[in-house]
Amino acid sequence: MEETLTQLFAFIKEIDKEKLIGRQTYLTDGMRKENDAEHAWHMAVMVLLFSEFANEKIDVLRTISMLLIHDIVEIDAGDTYAYDEEAKKTQKEREQKAADRIFGLLTKNRGTFLMELWKEFEAGETPEAKFARTMDNLQPLFLNACTEGKAWMEHGVSLDQILKRNDRTAEGSEVLWNYAKKHWIEPNLEKGRIQRGKDL
What we know:
By secondary structure, the protein is mostly helical. It has helices at about 1-15, 35-50, 60-70, 75, 85-105, 110-125, 125-145, 150-155, 160-165, 175-190; strands at about 20-25, 35.
């Protein structure tokens, strides 16, 4: 038992590095950008509160578990900004290599469990993965809306880019995606914080 606990705490120490991985989205006060761990916590709470709006019935614990571990790979791979097309070209390779190393720090059973959760999220095919990916897309949209489009304006983000990024967001929850368009995207588009492209 002692050896198992030592290994588990070594893994917990390793994933503490997720707190050091910066993202491009600002916190609601607009003073600094969030980190990966804050992003994961925020989405976990969102699942607890918004699961009733999923298109299909979901296993809440499995969905939260996916969101808590899906960005652990960024400890090695780094955060790939949603609109960085160049970085996206190597993202899958970088993240798979990171998943192999990090989840490999655990026993086979535990490591396989986390790897399967991560792969399920990446595939985005199950009801839980679809809803988890919806949360992963909506949370930064929400923070951008709260900060009056601060990160969008810094990066010159266009409506086309946002729509492309969110082309599957409605698969997890049409209700939440429609709400986001109406309350976060359209107002910021009208105020010029999002560059114009095709219509919603």
